[in-house]
Amino acid sequence: MFGANKTKIITDENKIDEVLTRGVEEVIVKEHLKERFCSGEKLRIKLGIDPTASDLHLGHAVPLRKLKQFQDLGHQIIFLIGDFTAKIGDPSGRDDARKVLSEKEVEENMKNYQKQAGKILDMKKVEIRYNSEWYKNLGYNFLFELTSKFTIARILERDDFKKRIKDDIDISMLEILYPLLQGYDSVALDADVEIGGTDQKFNLLMGRKVQRRYGKPEQDILTVPLLEGLDGVNKMSKSLNNYIGINEDSDNMFGKTMSISDSLVRKYFRLLTDLQEDEIDGMRKKVGMDFNPKNIKIKLAKEIVKMYHGEKEAKKAQENFERTFSKREFPEDAKVLKVLKTDKLIDVLVDNKIVESKSEFRRLILAGAVSDFPNKKISDSNEAVGGSERKIKVGKRVFVVLRLK
């Protein structure tokens, strides 16, 4: 399941302090965890991700990068894929219940999770687990035992449940069960530390309580900030379409990064790159003098693309961006689609996955975001391709050539 790990445990206090402070919101209990790190003890550090979507994005990269830092200190990383709990859905931060996923949907979503996580972690040294390993063999007696150890009042203390009760929005029994199951994962895995976003604090603390009820040592907790997405307001999420995917091609990754709010640039540097604090602060001081803030964002985009695609692709993505958006040129390597003149534009773009769905295409049309290059807006969502080669621009960053067969 995972390779033998004889890595030496690093106990350098300066390195440990940096890992416990940079890009960290809260540590429970910090003094206890630091003492354990400095002792040279090899800790089991858990991160759980439910496969509710097929792609990991830069929001997921924040805790994954923290895991990598602990891995570099020599500790055992546990990458838990919640294939069982994904069918329930985490209620954290939700104003309503998540859609219940089928087993087939979960299997499809998690196909490439390990490969995507491997862009950040050394997966040969990672313990990869699925929580269906224990839940599929546990019957109703286990459920009776687990739920008997807790009260509804304690579960309903969480803020998102309080808000839903106040707004008269239903809370399912499955959602109430979810934090107990996530907590039991820590029992099954003998977790010493669990990492999660700030919205996961209730679930992470529940892990400590479940461990205590089962006579296990309580895990320490480390929370990381949530990363706002491209809208500059909401948490990065595929469902909100405000995300930058770990698997996105270099041009899209670069272009999307360039579109983030200026107010988020420093946060992205701190959470998503390895640049030192003094270098980040130095760039910040240049803004407002004779330094163009756009250059800082270009550096950020290059740093992010370099991490997932390499130096060469990062440089190429910058050149493509500047040629396309600064010089208003049509990209030379735009995708070419062979079409018939009677084909409908909406069918061509959806069938070739240029846009995700017909409803998404119609939304883009209404927003004036689909055009014949350079800027002739397309207003008819049922328009046919027509008789000549067309260069189509979709949104800010997607370009495609339609060429007759």
TrEMBL record:
Subcellular localization, as worded in the UniProt entry: Cytoplasm
Annotated EC: 6.1.1.1
Taxonomic lineage: Bacteria, Candidatus Zambryskiibacteriota
Motif ('KMSKS' region): 235-239
Assembly notes: Homodimer.
Record's protein name: Tyrosine--tRNA ligase
Residues where ATP binds: K238
Gene this protein is translated from: tyrS
Biological source species: Candidatus Zambryskibacteria bacterium CG10_big_fil_rev_8_21_14_0_10_34_34
Reaction catalysis annotation: tRNA(Tyr) + L-tyrosine + ATP = L-tyrosyl-tRNA(Tyr) + AMP + diphosphate + H(+)
